[in-house]
Automatic annotation (TrEMBL):
It holds the Pfam family Epimerase. The lineage of its organism: Eukaryota, Viridiplantae, Streptophyta, Embryophyta, Tracheophyta. It comes from the Eukaryota. This is Tetraketide alpha-pyrone reductase 2-like isoform X1. Residues 19-81 form the NAD-dependent epimerase/dehydratase domain. SUPFAM superfamilies: NAD(P)-binding Rossmann-fold domains. InterPro entries: Epimerase_deHydtase, NAD(P)-bd_dom_sf.
Length: 93
């Protein structure tokens, strides 16, 4: 995409324009810029994956409401018989 910045072609750029910019978003965007530049310079194709959900060690004293929801789903929601038996995720550190 010639003459376009990351901000104009990626939803990650939108995150940087919000008041809630996080270090994760900054690091992800910076790494993606480097990857796009390296791909262009080497003539390689690049595929960028935007994960639907990223979780890591808690940065706040308490989990957010979104994280509590994911924790409830993965552990089985009270009052429901369904639980996730096949867990399609892995820890990446």
């Amino acid at each position: 995409m010639p003459n376009r910045s990351l901000r104009s072609r990626s939803h990650i750029g939108a995150i940087l324009n919000t008041a809630r910019t996080t270090m994760y978003a900054y690091a992800k965007t910076t790494a993606e810029k480097v990857a796009w530049r390296a791909a262009k310079e080497s003539g390689m194709d690049l595929v960028v994956v935007y994960p639907a959900f990223v979780v890591g060690p808690l940065l706040a004293p308490q989990p957010t409401s979104s994280l509590r929801m994911i924790m409830a789903i993965t552990k089985g929601i009270a009052g429901r018989k369904e639980t996730i038996t096949h867990k399609p995720w892995i820890p990446v550190k």
